[in-house]
Write a structure and sequence with these properties.
Mean pLDDT: 79
Helix content: 55-70%
Oligomer: single chain
Strand content: under 5%
Radius of gyration: 22 Å
Largest sheet: none
């Protein structure tokens, strides 16, 4: 298991994207004189996701209370499309998109480094503790041991290509004007 502090990065990205999405919603308290299709579509992810999450909360609370709520399995992957639309709408500002991509690259890099260290015999998972530990380790990565189960040279080349692609992705992010949305609705 990865250290829990690493979850701060993807969690912060989700908070920024969600805040961007909520900020871009048309106000229900001061509705426009005429709702356009684009304004109605902005509410679609919330109107699909919130009832599903409310039902899941009811199911979990009933289960915790010892009762059954007679609900089938909860498959949250069906929310991928509406949440993907909400995320696209939440990337309203370039700095949010840049921060999200950067956080993803850091999270992926650290998690891959820990996994490579584990498979090369330097890190370990000892006893009931599921976290990576370097107790008694004298290395971070041992390429000799790693080459017994993998191809470290090929992995290093693939990592270099991945890092270059990540840097290129961040450098090529669009620079919208302040009044321009990141999502164009047709």
């Amino acid at each position: 298991r990865l250290p829990e502090f690493l979850l701060i990065l993807p969690g912060a990205s989700l908070v920024l994207i969600t805040a961007g999405y909520v900020r871009g919603l048309p106000s229900m308290w001061r509705p426009p004189a005429k709702w356009t299709n684009a304004e109605i579509l902005k509410w679609a992810p919330a109107l699909i996701t919130l009832p599903m999450l409310a039902g899941l909360a009811q199911h979990v609370l009933s289960w915790m209370a010892g009762a059954t709520s007679l609900t089938p399995g909860w498959y949250l992957h069906i929310l991928a499309a509406p949440l993907g639309l909400a995320a696209a709408m939440g990337w309203r500002r370039t700095w949010v998109l840049t921060a999200s991509v950067g956080a993803t690259l850091i999270f992926a890099g650290v998690s891959e480094l820990l996994n490579v260290s584990l498979y090369s015999g330097c890190a370990a998972k000892l006893g009931a503790d599921k976290h990576f530990t370097f107790a008694g380790a004298s290395c971070l990565i041992d390429p000799v041991k790693l080459s017994a189960i993998a191809h470290p040279g090929l992995a290093l080349a693939a990592a270099a290509v991945g890092i270059a692609a990540g840097v290129l992705a961040v450098s090529r992010l669009p620079r919208p004007s302040p009044k321009e949305d990141a999502l164009v609705l047709f």
